[in-house]
Amino acid sequence: MLPNFSSLLRKVRFYLRHKSHQTWRLSRKSVEFVCLLIGAGWVALFSLGFALLAESGLEWNARWTAEYPLLVWLVLPLGLVALAWFTGKYTPYVSGSGIPQVIASISLPHGSNKTRLVAFGQTLWKIPLTFFAMLIGASVGREGPSVQVGAAVMLAWGNFCRKRNIAFKGLSSNELMATGAAGGLAAAFNAPLAGVIFAIEELGRGVMLRWERRVLLGVLAAGFIQVAIMGNNPYFPHYNGATDIPHLSLWVLLCAAVCGFFGGIFARLLAKGLAAYSPARWRGWIRRHPLWIAALLGLVLAALGSYSKGATYGTGYDVVTHLLHDAPLPAEGLGIAKLFATVATYWAGIAGGIFTPALTTGAALGAQIWEATGGVVDQRLLVLLSMAAFLAAATQSPVTASVVVMEMTGSQPVLFWLLACCLLASLVSRQFCPKPFYHLAASRFRQRIQEESNKAAAVTQSNQPT
What we know:
The protein is built from 19 helices and no strands. The chain is mostly helical.
């Protein structure tokens, strides 16, 4: 009897240890899930704060430019110079959109320099710098900056949890950055599904990312937390235009061709920079005097803003809203004016995104197509198609563009036509800018980090005693 009792006791002990281990594993998974939700919550809160600050900047800009229209000729040049000087001297990694910095960080090899482009302390400067850009009237958006801020916030939270052995031991820096970046986009646009598509199509292009359930849950959580706080409302007004018209495929082809052409030119201008389109004898001076160039570009923005009665300032949200309500264009040629205003702002080297300005440019081009064709179809449909097509042409991410516009406007019935228009526009755009703009810009940031790293290593080696 005694041997049988000992055997039974060993089985009981084994069972208890096994159950204890399973319970501990379950609790660790629960803790990690809670930490993931907390990280997504931080991303959503930063995006919300950024959105409220940006709205204030746009409102104040509309007030002072309407009351003192001549003042823009002084404020814009001086404001661009100040922002370009501060960005170049103190926060060189927050210039431009923010999406290229995240793409570059994901593709950099693991090491001390991998996360420099999304360092928490420096990346937070993206918020006030974008706010001031909106305040003075630069053509910028907050969605690209929200991507970089989201990546920095999630990475900082993930590192905090990993150092204290709380959670995220199985997630790499790449996965944390991708989760925060896509979550930032989802929260910025109030579009959770678009965040997931953006992560897969844009951030995962050309790099190895493990699309674990935790990553996708984190992206969706950031978007849904924003929805819970702000309500399930589209970013733009709900689309109430036509969903089916005669010969719709021909209108899709027309919008795709026009927006693909201008979107490809837009991406090429952004990628090449001002010096590439200047006479050879001026290029050296342009590269040596970025502040003088910022002042000149500020005058260009003032001229475009005065011509368009302020429609080229900021994100252009009000322009898209009016056009989706079937209102006429505020100014003739607004689509081209907004395109060049966004290019001029980007060339100045300040912080600010191109996502929403690209949507505004596409919407204005759609209204111009409607006017040029005699208004024979619903203007709102052409505006919607052109918004998505121009964004797809500028970024060469057609699925993201179509889903973003669908979620931002609640236009699910025309999703198929949006996707078809985006795919065609992206094909046209590649004839002018073969490589996606965000990835071209990312390669420059990556090269810059590697050059700075090599210089630092050379200095360290030269200082060592022989």
